[in-house]
Amino acid sequence: MPIERIRSFIAQDMSAVDAVIRQKLHSQVALIHQIGEYIIHNGGKRLRPALVILSAGVFNYSGQHHHSLAAVVEFIHTATLLHDDVVDESQLRRNKATANALFGNASSVLVGDFLYSRSFQMMVEVDNMRIMKVLSDATNIIAEGEVLQLLNCRDPDVEEENYLRVIRFKTAKLFEAAARIGAILGNATQFEEEALAIYGMHLGTAFQLIDDLLDYSGDYQDTGKNLGDDLAEGKPTLPLIYAMRTGSDKQASVIREAIKSGGASGFQTVLEIIQQTGALDYAQQRAQKEAEIAAEAIAKLSDSSYKECLLQLAHFAVTRNH
């Protein structure tokens, strides 16, 4: 079941999610609506809201709250993108200009704040304190991850453990929350809920590991970003960390200086070192292991088309080229 079949399987639900998104994006302040529409409907894989739909489906949920909560998850994710692009001074996302490049940093930050606050209004409407706690805790941890990543920038001494901590906070936590709230909606047992949470955490980790790998191996037409963007921002991602750990002193020194200085001027040399040290293969293997842990976490759940989609998402996370 490739990703297109997964999208087809939940197409009706995702259309309902899109309808909620459009309704809740409405604001009497025109700029909020304009920027929100631009970033949310400008591509994207919609994996996080899809996780809410699929995990609720595993437990035969038949209400409507999964549509609202999937939209909440997308709003939270979109807010982080708006803020991320300002912090990273990004100009391009998914082959198109970032919101901050078009509308300015101040507008992007403030509309991101609007999306955060709107998402909390929507959580209250669902009126489930357990779900509110999961999502509010996740939002707080994501913010901690953002700060941790900021502290790691231009620091060549970041260890793999610290790098993975940032991923689990900044990216994987929202995947975990999305999978968990779907299970809560479906009245899953504690064991089943934890299985979905573990699945989401490791799926999100695998997804981000591949994102970081693609920064050194992807194609612009597929990824919508230039090779070396992470290095230009001084981000010590896993390919760099592994290459410094296993390469020669000279090779490690080249990468250290590239991380400290940022910029893309030495990218080609760094890329050659990454290739020579097998860093891309290592990052791929680490991502594969995370995907396997995700799949194992839900292996004992009852078989269904929804479960099969979740298993295929884990496969997609590590085989994709965008």
Provide a concise account of the structure shown:
This protein has 322 residues and is mainly α. The chain is 76% helix and 1% strand. The protein has one domain: Orthogonal Bundle (Farnesyl Diphosphate Synthase), CATH 1.10.600.
Low-pLDDT runs of 5+ residues are none
Give the overall form. Answer: globular
Question: Mind telling me the CATH class?
Answer: Mainly Alpha
- Which sequence of strands runs across the widest sheet? 1-2
Helix content: over 70%
Number of helices: 17
CATH superfamily: Farnesyl Diphosphate Synthase
| Biggest pleated-sheet summary | 2 strands, antiparallel
CATH topology assignment: Farnesyl Diphosphate Synthase
Count of beta strands:
2
Fold and architecture overview:
InterPro entries: Isoprenoid_synthase_dom_sf (IPR008949), Polyprenyl_synt (IPR000092), Polyprenyl_synt_CS (IPR033749). Pfam families: polyprenyl_synt. The protein is mainly α. It has a single domain (3-203, 290-319), classed as Farnesyl Diphosphate Synthase. Helix content is 76%, strand content 1%. The chain has 17 helices and 2 strands. A two-stranded antiparallel sheet has the order 1-2. Strand 1 and strand 2 form a beta hairpin. Helix 3 crosses helix 7 and helix 5 (65-87) packs antiparallel against helix 7 (105-126). It is globular. The mean pLDDT is 93.
